[in-house]
Amino acid sequence: MSALYMIAGTLIALGVLVTFHEFGHFWVARRCGVKVLRFSVGFGMPLLRWHDKKGTEFVIAAIPLGGYVKMLDEREGEVPLDQLDQSFNRKSVRQRIAIVAAGPIANFLLALVFFWVLAMLGSDQVRPVIGGVEPGSIAAKAGLTAGQEIVAIDGEPTSGWAAVNLQLVRRLGESGALQLVVRDPGSTSDTPARAGAG
């Protein structure tokens, strides 16, 4: 069942990314006066299809592994004389670059929005509680015991295991004692400890 959730989640995420990417091309093409013939999310058999007032066909297809925006272009086929000014290939180099670059830029902006939302929501972290301590290990020599929570390392507070790992990585290649502050289970007071003297 978890495999199905993973596949469904991947397809939804891919669909969102593709939609924003193609929308970037579509939006800038419209602003530059290019006629958009089709905006498709997915490939294969169309599941949904409709047209807007400007004649663009919107398609949601069965295989959500990509998408495309088809624009009026003389290199793709014959263009009526009254629509030549709406053809992609007739636009300035600057406009064509903007249209092509708009897809990746849309994905970049979407990533910024996602990171901002995650930052606003915050994240739950696993409390840095010590599990089993091997006899004779550095942790045992420092007096650490199972169930203690690591409160700080070298004076830096540790709100979760990510912060603990970050502090340990910062000390890679260094010698000397690691200054730990731990809290015993059920206690509100902190206890200093030293580990890894070298």
Helix and strand content put the structural class at: alpha+beta
**Radius of gyration, taken over Cα atoms and rounded to an integer in Å:** 28 Å
Distance between the termini: 50 Å
Task: Give me the number of helical elements.
Answer: 4
Report helical residue fraction: 25-40%
Q: In this structure, how is the largest beta sheet organized?
A: 4 strands, antiparallel
Instruction: Kindly report the spatial arrangement of strands forming the biggest sheet.
Output: 4-3-5-6
Task: Write a brief structural summary.
The chain is α+β, with helices and mostly antiparallel strands and 198 residues long. The chain has four helices and six strands; from the N terminus they run H-E-E-H-H-E-E-H-E-E. The chain has two domains: 120 residues, no CATH class; 58 residues, Pdz3 Domain (Roll).
Helix-strand layout with pairing:
Blueprint: H1 2-31, E1 36-51, E2 57-71, H2 93-121, H3 138-141, E3 149-153, E4 156-157, H4 161-170, E5 178-183, E6 190-195
Antiparallel strand pairs: 1-2, 3-4, 3-5, 5-6
Helix pairs in contact: 1-2
Explain this structure.
The protein folds into two domains: 2-121, no CATH class; 138-195, PDZ domain (Pdz3 Domain). The chain has helices at residues 2-31, 93-121, 138-141, 161-170, and strands spanning 36-51, 57-71, 149-153, 156-157, 178-183, 190-195. The longest helix is centred in the N-terminal third of the chain and has 30 residues, at 2-31. It is α+β, with helices and mostly antiparallel strands and 198 residues long. Strand 5 and strand 6 form a beta hairpin. It has four helices and six strands. The protein is elongated and about 85 Å long.
